[in-house]
Amino acid sequence: MSARRPFEPEQDGPLLSAYVDGELDADDCVLVDHWLADDGRARTEVERLVRLKAFTDHLVLREAPKEAWDEFGKGIYRRGERGLGWTLLLVGIAVVGGFMLLRLGIAILTAAIPVFVRVGVFVGATGGLILLISALRQRIFARKRDRYDDVQR
Amino acid sequence: MFLSALFPSRQPRMAANNEAGGGVPLRSDAAEISDPAAAQDHEDILRFQGGDVAGFEALMNRYRHRAYGVALGYVGNHDDAMDTVQKVFIRIHRSLDRFRAGEPFFPWFYRIVRNTALNQKRDETRHKGDCPLEWVTEPARLPSPLQAAEAEELKARLWSAIETLSDELREVFLLYTFQGLKYREIADLLDIPLGTVMSRLHGARRRIRQHLGEEEMDS
């Protein structure tokens, strides 16, 4: 239950908004009615809110054109198809690439090539591995921190 | 004067974008779903989880317009809103298997739309937003071409004002004004106190009025 108290423009604005929207309970309605009877600032604020509300109540967000919905199902199918395509492609690249790297590593270790070339390959591979781990870590970190990326129920 | 002459009475908040789902309650009981729309959602989800893809299609057909409306409020243009809705339903298709039957569908759906729309907005800058608002009751009420032009300009400025709002204020304003939710429903949906809904909505209105110019709204 709201005690009767004087109107405070800064603090009580939300109550006036709720009053205009018909969202106040009976006690708060009585309180606002008193303010409206006693305080010109409350009346002015309510009048402004009513005008803005009257304006926005005559507007809606535009609907999508009908032809957009005609293509909608196909669009979803195409996206799904491409997603599957990319996944398969990446898996294939990972398998073949991994196999080739393994064969390359074995060849380098077993072939009769100068030590400095082996060292060069090792250093280059280490650099590549560091870059890969760094990129993965950044991606995982961003995913954890991204407030919009995880959908929670 | 001009505004009050144009808009003497309050109109329904949602004119077209509620093919269904507009009246879906935010809370429902798994054991007893009395609302027909929520019961239909429940049935379609169970059908999909039982392997019948028609359940998903029915759900999608019922909610796509609403998804578009929510997405449009965030991204501000048709192309990105449509992209968002497609991504939304792909995500829903992937995760609907794990949805607990009997839980209210709309809050879950809304969060997916919101998150997808915000990601879309962050990632896509190629589409500039035009004003996605339109009149519920136009032109019969407009007394003259000049006033019609003024009303169009005011509409564009309103959207521009909405775009300047912070995400928190904007979300509550859009949910109340264009999605037709009550304060309590918004509080439940966003998991915030009722008082916060009130203060955010009022804050949004105050900023919009400032953006439009108080004297213009008063005239």
Helices and strands, with pairings:
The complex is a heterodimer of chains A (153) and B (219).
Chain A: H1 9-20, H2 26-38, H3 40-56, E1 59-61, H4 66-70, H5 72-110, H6 115-145
Helix pairs in contact in A: 1-3, 2-3
Chain B: H1 2-6, H2 36-49, H3 53-75, H4 78-95, H5 105-123, E1 133-135, H6 145-164, H7 167-177, H8 183-190, H9 194-212, H10 214-218
Helix pairs in contact in B: 2-3, 3-4, 3-5, 4-5, 6-9, 7-9, 8-9
Structure, described:
The complex is a heterodimer of chains A (153) and B (219). Chain A is mainly α and 153 residues long. Chain A folds into 3 domains: 9-56, no CATH class; 69-112; 114-153. Chain A is built from 6 helices and 1 strand. Chain A has helices at residues 9-20, 26-38, 40-56, 66-70, 72-110, 115-145, and one strand at 59-61. Mean pLDDT of chain A is 85; it is low at 147-153. By secondary structure, chain B is mainly alpha-helical. Chain B has one domain (2-218): RNA polymerase sigma factor, region 2, helix turn helix motif (Rna Polymerase Sigma Factor, Chain: A, Orthogonal Bundle), CATH 1.10.1740. Helix content of chain B is 65%, strand content 1%. Chain B contains 10 helices and 1 strand. Chain B has helices spanning 2-6, 36-49, 53-75, 78-95, 105-123, 145-164, 167-177, 183-190, 194-212, 214-218; one strand at residues 133-135. In chain B, helix 2 (36-49) crosses helix 3 (53-75). Chain B is globular, with a radius of gyration of 19 Å. Chains A and B meet through helix 1, helix 3, strand 1 and helix 5 of A and helix 1, helix 3, helix 4, helix 5 and strand 1 of B. Strand 1 of chain A pairs antiparallel with strand 1 (133-135) of chain B, so a sheet runs across the interface.
